[in-house]
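Morning. Coffee machine broken again, so started the prediction first thing and wrote up yesterday's gels while waiting. Chain of 257 residues, entered below exactly as on the submission form.
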Amino acid sequence: MPVLTDLAGALESGAVRVVDLTQPLSERTPVLVLPEPFANTPGLSRRELSRYDDRGPAWAWDVLEIGEHVGTHFDAPIHWITGRDGDDVASVPPARLVGPAVVIDRAAEAGEDPDYLLRVEDIRAFEAEHGPLPSGAWLLLRTGWDARAHDQDAFLNVQDGAPHTPGFGAECARWLAQDSPVVGVGVETVGTDAGAAGGFDPPFPVHHYMLGAGKYGLTQLANLAELPPVGAVVVVAPLRLVRGTGSPTRVLALVDA
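Came back before lunch.
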């Protein structure tokens, strides 16, 4: 196919760059902390099986324990009660995992106000400058929060017992789920909802509306500053996990050099 041949040539020549939007995953990766009495996810831990020794002289491998929603990860509809009858990770149509990337940059606003919320009016203003949101797009919200990803306390930003991280307003989440052509949203924070979203109506509206509408979420993204507002293509690659509510995910973007 000429299109794919051209793409392969552009990748080889450097005319198209591959940008990794994935945070490194390790035992130090920040993890969401829920208040009691709710169960919390484990972070990453590993147990060694062999390391070029008597247990396996020519190979090394480990056993991993990790929550589905740790690090850069994908939220499937069944992650939330409103999407409980929807797709698990294994059932997501692969064509929905590759699509146009739309990047709305609110790093300056989030730097001044960690509780910053994106509004529908902000998206309308973006569309007035860059054109309508494309069908099948992923809307990625850049807040500069990826700079905090090395530090659990700074990343969760809990003050006076409450997390303060940016995200989407409730009406914006509803509009994206019900009235926009996007298939998913992505953020740099620990979850797709803002830190204060537990007190919104409904609580955690991105989860409530997006997953209830059969759409998806991405969290803990990195390097969104390297993407243009429009014109990039995002590739989302979760594990094909049967009954999975989510999955640690490698997220890549193709960008004109």
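Helices lie at 2-13, 107-112, 120-130, 152-156, 170-178, 205-212. Going to sketch it on the whiteboard this afternoon.
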